[in-house]
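Weekly modeling sync, notes
Attendees: S.R. (lead), two postdocs, one rotation student

Agenda item 3: backlog of single-chain predictions. S.R. asked that every request posted to the team notebook include the full sequence so nobody has to chase files. The rotation student volunteered to paste the first one in as an example of the format we agreed on. Action items at the bottom.

Example entry:
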Amino acid sequence: MSQAIGNTALAYARVWHHVDASDRVLGKLAERIALVLMGKHKPIYDPSVDCGDYVIVTNSRKIKVTGRKEEQLLFRKHSMFPGGLKETPYKDMKDRKPDEARTLLLAQLAFD
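Predicted structure, as returned to the notebook:
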């Protein structure tokens, strides 16, 4: 005899997570954030159900990148006109707009 136990509202409740990004490696931090946003850390995970939690990242200016990623990582945007591809290296973006650079990097790495 099988018994089906329904998922309670408590299991689907969303929780706020605070992440301190100071002196953390970018890729590992982005992976953990992605798991929490998708809800894969919960036992009730189902890809068709949005059961992820909320994440707040602080001290994003102190995120570290390893190796030669400062020169190799590129931000790309296109104006949809022929020849309209703009590429900006992470190193330049970090100096000009540090908050936007970290936000875009975390979004890229979390959802690739």
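Discussion: group reviewed the output briefly. Residues 16 and 54 are 5 Å apart (CA to CA).
Action items: rotation student to repeat for the remaining queue; S.R. to check formatting next week.
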